[in-house]
Amino acid sequence: MANEHTTIYFNPKCSKCNMTLALLKEKGKTLEVVEYLQTVPSKDELKNILGLLGLNADQLLRKHESAYQEAGLSDASSEDEILDAMMNYPILIERPIVVHDGKAAIGRPPENILEIL
């Protein structure tokens, strides 16, 4: 398909991100690389990604990051509270996320993304 679009939400310090990026390049994909710690997705973008993944915000949350406590999150946090925290502390967003032609996958392990290519 000529107008395929593939985006990876990427942290260059993350080994899984780098492995997933290498896999996408190996598959010859034209990529938009979003370093989401610098270019934080908007709330609408996050909601769209969650919809494509079929997850709620809590399932995309890295709870072991110190930012989880800093953001005041808990198991009782609402979807909106979690999304706001992800925008203020993008390190909380699970990574890497690949969006390809209206589908999305989390590259943990990197091979997960093959299902959507």
Quick description:
The protein is α+β, with helices and mostly antiparallel strands and 117 residues long. Helices cover 32% and strands 15% of the residues.
Q: How many domains?
A: 1
Terminal Cα separation, in Å? 11 Å
CATH homologous superfamily label: Glutaredoxin
The H/E string reads EHEHHHEE
Q: Given the C-alpha coordinates, what overall shape results?
A: globular
Query: What name does the CATH topology carry?
Result: Glutaredoxin
CATH class: Alpha Beta
Poorly predicted regions are none
Got a strand count?
A: 4
Largest sheet: 4 strands, mixed
Mean pLDDT: 95
Helix count, DSSP H or I runs of 4 or more residues: 4
What structural class results from the helix and strand content?
Answer: alpha+beta
What is the CATH-assigned architecture? 3-Layer(aba) Sandwich
The fraction of residues in strands falls at 15-25%
Radius of gyration of CA atoms, rounded to a whole number: 14 Å
Helical amount: 25-40%
The largest sheet has its strands arranged as 2-1-3-4
How would you describe this structure to a colleague?
By secondary structure, the chain is α+β, with helices and mostly antiparallel strands. The protein has one domain: 3-Layer(aba) Sandwich (Glutaredoxin). It is 32% helix and 15% strand. The protein contains 4 helices and 4 strands, in the order βαβαααββ. Strand 1, helix 1 and strand 2 form a beta-alpha-beta unit. The longest helix has 12 residues.
